[in-house]
Please model this.
Amino acid sequence: MSDEMEELQERIRLLAADRRANIDILESQKSRNKAKMKRLREENAEYRRKLNEAQKKGGAGPKEKTEVERLEREVRKQRKLQDDSRARSKKVRGRLQQLKDEVRGMWFECTFVSRGGR
Model:
């Protein structure tokens, strides 16, 4: 019984270490995504500012119209990148929470086993 309990505790310890490593990786990825989203927001704001300036000048000539269209395309592109980044970040946060819940469950199980609950 003691050998079985030690084996289970060792398995749980190893799994918890793997989970912690995964959590660290996900936290790092989350930080990178957050920084990227901030950069994309700033770029998006700059493109919007340029677009507003171009629109205020009026579309007197074809060159200005093409510039406005180019800026509009760039704004749409940046919004899509931001949306994609936000979706990836949400997925990573969900996985991180799932891993945290698994570690918490394993910890409770380990505590239960070590107290002779089985």
Observations:
- The two ends are 10 Å apart (CA to CA).
